[in-house]
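To the team - 2AL complex, inputs and output below.
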Amino acid sequence: MDINTVNSLPYEDFVDVFGNVVEKCPLITAAVWSRRPFGNLADLEAAISEFIDALPESGKEGILRCHPDLAGRDLRGGTLTRESREEQAGAGLDALDAAEASRVAQLNDAYKRRFGFPFVICARMNDKGRILQQLSQRCLNEAAAERTRGIEEVKKICNLRLKGLVRADPPNKL
Ligand SMILES: NC(=O)NC1=NC(=O)NC1=O
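Output:
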């Protein structure tokens, strides 16, 4: 779809298409719809980013809490969203051996106990080795730093999901 088509979508279709670009946060999509027309994909990305940045810390933590654990209950139970399932499988998180699965679960729990929100990373930009390394390393950070970093990862996930939906190049004028 090109940006002209995006701009022409009625509200319901816009939310149907873009409602999960931020995992389980269709509110963000519903909010930025009124910012149309978007000049290009970067404008749409910027509108989402600006909405997120304007949230209070509690709102940012809420976005992080909407994310399923990596290699967690939702993956095991088959209740991941399509996007999340593809992302986690792409990083090999659906093929962990028992030791890896146990380590990820233990680190995810430790991370959540420490910060009160889950570890979030853009799975498509990492493989399982780096995700495990980041998970153990980021457990040691301060909460404010992890809230910021988690939101940065949310934006990376969002941008990749948007790129799968909207053609970045300007529509052909010819
Ligand atoms: N906790 C997470 O980081 N979840 C996820 N990262 C992704 O890239 N997809 C997810 O579901």
